[in-house]
């Protein structure tokens, strides 16, 4: 073999190795978190409100950057009406009136911010805390696996005819559009409900694929950061930061492609019911759903799920760290090119899932990067995962395993203003051995 051939071969191997590392987890030639995200929102001063939003929005309405809006109580954008929000606009959810914003079925939101001028939803409490206000709810006309259409009326303090009318969701149009949600930050949402549950940062119910959902950050949510019931959505460049409950939860026949998105967990921020980066369910109670309809189906690509801990082994020993991913019964999950770092274990499957080829073909993990996880994939309440390790550990799935420190695994996670959670190139030692 001549020198030119050798050099070419070495270059090819190094290039392929670098590409293989780059393609896992969140991607981008530049750090797409820059400018529009905020990891210390409690230090931001958004100014005093100059306008009030209250009651029902019953005509096409525009919110302007030059104003700061105070959201009072439960505000609904009603059917056939459009709420347009200019880039850079600030909407402050009122703590005392437990504010929330709902885009009713048939209504539209155009919240189209920019990387340098994101739209911001936050709290007026001082100091701000998770659960200060409700959150953003978008209701569409897509399909679900529930019997009949659904309602989110339990999320509201007022219970009248207008509330019931504007809180319904569901239909037969999975291509439905509820508008645009792009370059938006939602902070300190997720107020507690009477039944003990919580509002979520962003709640999408039966939202169709015509809706644009890109570059949305939910930080310090008391409930789930992103909750999706039914519908058919594509969500790209999502960020969940220190949610008390789950970062991404799918339920009631949700069909979704979650792409190039990030969830950052803290061992000291969680709920008593458990907190995961991704939870895929098809129902909460069997009697709620029609099993002749498809269950939830999630395609998850290029995600990075990180548990930030200064002493991971101690946090695991203290019971402060749980699994990153939970897969429920009658669901489908195809997860690939994803980084799971610092969990206990990486994945848990519902104990109602029988471990056989038919079911495992619906739950796929390929080209994964399991790092610093105490165990990989288990069935709930079963410590013997030999069958699962043999299945997913097959070299055909291209899954790799590592024990690298987070500070060495990612480019720059200690930068509070502009962290970079892309994988660090040429600093990763990984293998397909567990």
**Global morphology:** globular
Mean pLDDT: 91
Rg, alpha carbons? 22 Å
Provide a count of the helices.
6
How many β-strand runs? 30
User: Which regions have little confidence, pLDDT < 50, spanning 5+ residues?
Assistant: 3-21
C-alpha termini separation? 36 Å
Which band does the percent of strand residues land in? 25-35%
- Secondary structure: helix percent: 10-25%
User: Could you give a short account of the major beta sheet?
Assistant: 26 strands, parallel
Question: Structural class of the secondary elements?
Answer: mainly beta
Molecular structure report:
The longest helix is centred in the N-terminal third of the chain and has 20 residues, at 3-22. The protein has helices spanning 3-22, 161-166, 312-317, 357-360, 386-392, 406-409, and strands spanning 51-57, 61-63, 68-77, 82-85, 90-93, 100-103, 108-112, 119-123, 136-139, 150-151, 168-169, 179-187, 202-205, 212-219, 226-229, 232-241, 248-251, 255-265, 278-280, 297-307, 325-327, 332-336, 339-341, 347-349, 363-366, 369-371, 377-379, 400-402, 410-412, 420-423. The strands form 3 sheets. The chain has a 26-stranded parallel sheet that branches. A two-stranded antiparallel sheet has the order 10-11. It is 11% helix and 34% strand. The chain has 6 helices and 30 strands. The chain is mainly beta and 434 residues long.
Key terms:
single chain, 434 residues, mainly beta, 26-stranded parallel β-sheet, two-stranded antiparallel ribbon, 34% strand, globular
């Amino acid at each position: 073999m001549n020198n030119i051939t050798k050099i070419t071969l070495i270059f090819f191997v190094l290039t392929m190795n670098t590409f293989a590392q780059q393609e896992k987890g969140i991607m981008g030639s530049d750090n797409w978190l820059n400018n529009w995200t905020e990891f210390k929102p409690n230090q931001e001063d958004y100014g005093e409100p100059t306008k009030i939003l209250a009651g029902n929005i019953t005509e096409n309405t525009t919110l302007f950057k030059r104003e700061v809006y105070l959201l009072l109580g439960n505000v609904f954008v009603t059917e056939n009406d459009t709420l347009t929000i200019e880039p850079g606009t600030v909407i402050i959810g009122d703590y005392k009136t437990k504010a929330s914003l709902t885009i009713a079925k048939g209504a539209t939101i155009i919240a189209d911010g920019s990387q340098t001028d994101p739209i911001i939803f936050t709290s007026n409490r001082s100091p701000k805390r998770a659960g200060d206000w409700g959150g953003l709810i978008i209701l569409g006309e897509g399909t679900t696996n529930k019997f009949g259409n659904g309602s989110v009326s339990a999320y509201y303090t007022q219970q009248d005819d207008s509330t019931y009318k504007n809180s319904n969701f569901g239909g037969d149009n999975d291509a439905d559009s509820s508008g645009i949600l792009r370059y938006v930050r939602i902070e300190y949402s997720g107020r507690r409900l009477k039944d003990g549950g919580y509002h979520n940062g962003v709640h999408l119910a039966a939202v169709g694929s015509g809706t644009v959902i890109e570059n949305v950050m939910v930080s310090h949510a008391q409930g789930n950061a992103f909750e999706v019931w039914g519908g058919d959505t594509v969500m790209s460049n999502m960020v969940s930061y220190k949610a008390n409950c789950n970062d991404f939860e799918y339920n009631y026949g949700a069909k979704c492609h979650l792409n190039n998105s990030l969830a950052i967990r803290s061992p000291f921020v969680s709920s008593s019911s458990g907190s995961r980066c991704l939870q895929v369910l098809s129902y909460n109670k069997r009697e709620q759903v029609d099993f002749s309809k498809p269950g939830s189906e999630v395609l998850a690509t290029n995600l990075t799920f990180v548990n930030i801990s200064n002493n991971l082994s101690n946090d695991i020993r203290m019971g402060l760290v749980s699994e990153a991913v939970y897969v429920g019964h009658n669901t489908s999950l195809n997860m690939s090119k994803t980084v799971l770092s610092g969990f206990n274990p990486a994945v848990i499957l519902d104990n109602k899932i029988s471990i056989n080829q038919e079911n495992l073909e619906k739950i796929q993990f390929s080209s994964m990067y399991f790092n610093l996880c105490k165990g990989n994939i288990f069935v709930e309440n079963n410590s013997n995962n030999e069958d699962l390790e043999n299945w997913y550990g097959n070299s055909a799935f291209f899954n790799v395993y590592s024990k690298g420190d987070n500070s060495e695994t990612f480019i720059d996670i200690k930068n509070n203003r502009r962290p970079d959670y892309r994988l660090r190139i040429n600093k990763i030692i990984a293998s397909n051995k567990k």
